[in-house]
Design a protein that fits this description.
It contains four helices and five strands. The chain is of the alpha/beta class.
Length: 144
Amino acid sequence: MKGALMKKNRATEADVEQREESASPESSQGDCEARPMQIGPELRARLVDYFQGQGYEVTEGAELPGKSGSTHTFDMLARMDDGLNSYIVAVCITVAADDGTAMEAIYHFANKAYDCGIIERVLIATPELSGRARQLARKQRMKV
């Protein structure tokens, strides 16, 4: 039994190393690192158009300092100031092949948004999240 567990751990470590080697720095955007970004530019353009149509100024790959002192990178930030209130929406785009990577991306994104004081959070995941992952995202106040 112990030998089987050790083989499983070695296989997991090898999988992680292989994923890290295959991920190019240009394809990963810092906050939703579940897998390399594989979302096409047309989806990004549609998101930008949507937010701009709502009056937001959109920044891709935006960095914000958190309360912890760390600087966090978000796939996209949409900001709007109507003169009375300021609104910030953080967007995470992730490709998560399984439940574990999806949930890891959700926790990572939620922690960064919390550290930066961002309440409005949007998660775009492909393929579609499982019921468990979707429930976790909703508990973390994310619109999926």
